[in-house]
Amino acid sequence: MSVEWSSSGPELLVTLDRDRPLRAQLEAQLRTAIRTGRLAADERLPSTRTLARDLELSRGLVQECYEQLKAEGYLTSRGGSATRVARLSGERQSPRSPAPARAATAPPLVADFESGVPDLGLAPRADWAWAVREACRTAPDLAFHYGDPRGVADTRAVLAAYLGRVRAVDCDPEQVIFCSGFGQGLSLTLRALVRRGLTRVACEDPGSIGTVTAAATSAGGETVAVPVDDDGIDVEALAASGARVAVVTPAHQWPTGVVLSPERRHQLLAWARDCDGVIVEDDYDAEFRYDRDPVGSMQGLDPDRVVVLGTGSKSLAPALRLGWAVVPARLADDVAAEKRVADRGSSGIDQAALAILIESGRYDRHLRRMRAEYAGRRAALVTALETHAPHVRLTGLAAGFHAVAHLPGHADERQVLDRARSRGVGLRGMSTYRSTRALTPPQLVLGFGNTTTRAVEAGIRTVADLLG
Ligand SMILES: Cc1ncc(COP(=O)(O)O)c(C=O)c1O
């Protein structure tokens, strides 16, 4: 990454013994730093004025030192520009870290149906930068201090109101805990629940089995996989599993895309009440819904039994690592305590930026824009399959930005993936998300978040060709 330094230049770690010749020490330390790679080629040095001031030396001494090192080939400067570390030949300069091994070159992808990723090219850079700037400009000094590990009170109130408005979440701001994405929200919640003796955690199958298992295991618990059918998680199988915690994706099951049916919702809530259990609701992509009535969060139906975990990874960008947990009041202190241990709280400035985006209407505007984008790609996917592979059924399209393609029964999922890859099309198979890794029935999880309608069309034509 190329970074322009501010005019004062970078800091430099040099320690001098005032009882010994100073120039020789400074030269020797710079030579060593360059040879060992602590100062890398092209790195900018502080100006002679700045370094002289920082080290309490005369500027003339530092100038002489720089001149000497230039003469020796360690430093360069062109036409009055900043002094930089020269590129040394051969063994004189060891790289700071070993050069990364070159990845084997696979052909570039014409189309990549990677799922779970929003359009990174349309991440709301300008809005986010504006909101962070506004947050920095308007925040009181105290906002830059450590704070409540749950997050900033005002910001939690804005989020609680927003979730009430769009997801029918019923909560007090005290129940909101900001965290770095769904992943951390899940870990913190499971830690708190395992401490209370709820050690067996059910996850959907197919589903995010790896993620849930990793979080449960590191919390000292264990997971049990419970099948999902066309109505969502099988609640009878869940009840038989002995788990008292269930991690579910009711609004748009990951990855099958089915919506938890109203009957199952009620069964699931009854299960939680009967076994004194907890439902952990992963509400990961509910902002993006298309041709059905919005499905509210389950949390609103029983705020004392449901933890709802939300994320900015789909609505904004995964790199922001912004998420939230809305926790039953009786668990909120426990989860907040886990958050304190984990990292003392998420960035207050980022939370404030999110609140500013929400309150200014820019968050809704971005979501509207993205919904239209994804709807276009989704339509392209449907049309391309109808045109080129009408025998391939598509399901799970009600929300989000992925769908499931049901391949003909004789198709070999792994072979389709490999052959598509060799023709520049990136595909993911359903087997990856099954507890058994079973390759049948052969299905593709087709993500259309981080792609284009043109790539969707081209990719589906290739898949159709492979299927014959
Ligand atoms: C099912 C599911 N839930 C949630 C997330 C978001 O996780 P995070 O908020 O930690 O980025 C993902 C990420 O791909 C996911 O697949």
Question: How does this model look, in words?
Answer:
With 468 residues, the protein is α/β, with parallel strands linked by helices. The chain contains 15 helices and 15 strands. Strand 12 (393-395) and strand 13 (402-406) form a beta hairpin. The model has no long low-confidence stretch (mean pLDDT 93). Residues 116, 181-183, 208, 249, 254, 282, 284, 311, 313, 318, 323 line the site of pyridoxal-5'-phosphate.
Topology:
Elements: H1 22-35, H2 48-55, H3 59-71, E1 75-76, E2 84-85, E3 111-112, H4 125-138, H5 153-167, E4 176-179, H6 181-195, E5 200-205, H7 209-218, E6 222-229, E7 232-233, H8 235-241, E8 245-248, H9 262-274, E9 278-282, E10 306-311, H10 312-315, E11 323-326, H11 329-343, H12 348-360, H13 362-388, E12 393-395, E13 402-406, H14 413-422, E14 425-426, E15 443-447, H15 453-467
Parallel strand pairs: 3-14, 5-6, 5-8, 8-9, 9-10
Antiparallel strand pairs: 1-2, 4-11, 6-7, 10-11, 12-13, 13-15
Helix pairs in contact: 1-3, 2-3, 4-12, 5-12, 6-7, 6-11, 13-15
The protein binds pyridoxal-5'-phosphate (PLP).
